Amino acid sequence: MILCELATPAAGSGHRFDEERHWAASLALRFANREGTTRLVQARHQGPLRVQRPFYPEGSTEACHVYVLHPPGGLVSGDALTIRAQIERDAHALLTTPAANKLYKADSQGVAWAQHTELNVDDGGILEWLPQETIAFDGSKGTQRTHIALHGSARCLGWEIMALGRPASELPYVSGRIEQHFRLTLDGKPLWLERQPLDPLHPRFSGRWGQGGATVQATLWAVGLEDASAAIDELRDVLPDNPRWAVTVRQGVLLLRYLGNSRNEAWALCEQAWQRLRPRWIEREAHTPRIWLT
């Protein structure tokens, strides 16, 4: 889907945009339970952020699947994207994306991009935040902020997958800086706070005590498991046995981490973990969004 005709390509990115007018886009979604069915009752947008119509592949009384669309396909210098979602009481939304998000090389002035995601889940609400991976091109500069605010008995399961550079094209991530901020709260109290700078010039990037030269990282989290210890035991039994991932629980949050060099491996690990966790988490089998299969 093309929403706007863009003028000129950013240097080295393949991404078309008007150098005098960068994208400032926002999307605000609200889901509510209406007579036992989760409905998308509000979808406000500005700029190139949209959603497709809601899907109910699990049945009308189960999760409302929604695909978040960003037609430009990625962020360039000066872009600012904001995504907000409100999941009201007893509503259940699964949000994903149709393709990888790309973070392109900064312009000649080194102007950064910004991406802000704010997810709010009311008491009794359920949110699955399952975007496809993010690919950072060499020289990309920007800040990602994710804030998930849970209330009461709200439950949330999600992941973030980041691939640095394009090794298959022999274009590693050797310059630039990406700063990530993650905040997960319950009734205003922090459960998990994290800040991570990704700077290939910093010793942490290649040091064994830090990233160790890994080009792909992923984090999966789950809040609302009745028996997190049993869930961890199951994941350790069924997921591939290798040193590139680990799982634990902190403050009631199950955290699975991957640090390696394969986007496919990271994605498969997260998807398999989600498939195993979902029946324990909400007593429903995982239903793969069909957009992942196209």
UniProtKB/TrEMBL annotation:
Known partners and oligomeric status: UreD, UreF and UreG form a complex that acts as a GTP-hydrolysis-dependent molecular chaperone, activating the urease apoprotein by helping to assemble the nickel containing metallocenter of UreC. The UreE protein probably delivers the nickel.
Source superkingdom: Bacteria
Positions in coiled-coil regions: none
Record's keyword terms, sorted: Chaperone, Cytoplasm, Nickel insertion
GO MF term list: nickel cation binding
Family stated for the protein in its record: Belongs to the UreD family.
Protein function: Required for maturation of urease via the functional incorporation of the urease nickel metallocenter.
Protein name per its UniProtKB record: Urease accessory protein UreD
Organism: Vreelandella nigrificans
